[in-house]
Amino acid sequence: MRHWNRYPAEVSIGLSPCGRMDPIDFLTLVHLPAYQGLALGATGTRALERFGDLAMGVELLARQSRRARLDVIDECLDLVLIDAEAPAGFHFTGCSLAIFWAALGPAQADWRVALLSAPMEALREAARRRVNVARRGLYFKQWRLWLPRAYEDEPRATLPQPLETLLRSADPNWQAPQRSRFCVEQCEQFRLPELHLPRRGKRFPQSDTRVVQQMLDWSMQRLLPRGDGPHSNHEELAFCLPSLEQSYFSDHFDVRNLFAHLRLSRLIDDQERWIILIDEVQSDWRRDLRRQRLGRPLPERRLARGGALRTTPQPVPECPLGGDWLAVVVEALVAYAVTEGAELIAWVPGALQVELAEGLPLPVAQRLYDRDLPAALRAVIARDQLEGRDPLPSSFDYQTYARNLRFEHRRHEGWRLVDASTGLSRGPFADLEQATDCFQCLAQPVVERLPALSLKVAAD
User: Fold this and answer.
1) Distance CA 119, CA 77 (A)
2) Same domain as 422, residue 382
3) Residue 4 belongs to some domain of the structure
4) Are 139 and 231 contained in the same domain?
5) Cβ contacts of residue 210 below 8 Å, gap of 6+?
6) In this predicted model, what pLDDT tens digit does every residue of 336-376 receive, in sequence order?
7) pLDDT tens digits, residue range 261-291?
């Protein structure tokens, strides 16, 4: 049983010691009046995750009449228990502010005043901006990750009895919170389901049908398939721990606590085999922790504040997964490959990774792609798919191009092709399609033999 810190009911609500309201953004903890001696607060830390859950139908709206609903954005705000000893200064209760208000009932006049205070209105507006500037096509998929045993969740957390009793009285099916781990997936083409929310209260970010652009910022930094080569399409999987109270932001993504991302291609080779090709796997969190320990400069974080992505310096918290991030990613990848019906899982070896990624040290690439990644794949495939038997090593011929030309996009100019050895460029081109046509005419075609492991049991 956790012992929650208790604050007096008259604690100041979102005010500095001098009585002036501090600037509020979605990460701010706004104090609320105490409930039966329990110190409560509200935060928009998980606003993007909660909005994704509502859009995907994972989470339901609070049982409120439209007259009783203060603001629909409360569905995206978290009710938290304040604890000065916690890493973020609070613990998630697992319920939104809207659910808590529905449990209290509209007769609680003092709470209505607190929930409509200036700090709370500022927090709601910060949460709206947070959701509105979310990158198009980004959503939280219902795909639970299996963590290594050392990091499995504890039994369901027990909330303080007064709060648990209140929530159960409002919803007999309510369950105490349990941390969850979800996979975030960003696809080339994805349409956000229409989201029908009550219109009571201030504006909720309008849902629409969105089609995202291709992920051009990285798709040209991989082994490009030749036009006459195997059919291929690529996508990106990113893995996060959204229910952690602490917050880490990388320089690549504007979601919280993303501990790894995986870029892959799905293709059929000349032998009609379905193949999952790992183009790149990386942990920004582990990278930034290493830089912080060495005293090196950290990349600027991507934080959605206002109408654009702005950067704010933040210390890097410890990653709960430690060195097991790759094992978690590989477990999810193997499950994904089996679901897709893939026969092989292949990867780009370290020497080619260095050619594709400028500045990547060869020893680092070889350690990850020639040692750690194959070892993790063999362990998971043998355990989950082949009942302890070692997976068969394999390979396939990938028809691609030499890495002498690269794509660049220059603002106000458009697309160019740059020769990596001479620095000479061609262009600008009106669009990427024209640049790609020129690339296919100028680039040298090559065939790369890539390593792979079979997901199938060998015939006796």
Assistant:
1) 13
2) no
3) no
4) no
5) 136, 137, 190, 191, 192
6) 899 889 999 999 999 999 988 878 889 999 999 999 999 99
7) 999 988 888 888 899 999 999 999 999 999 9
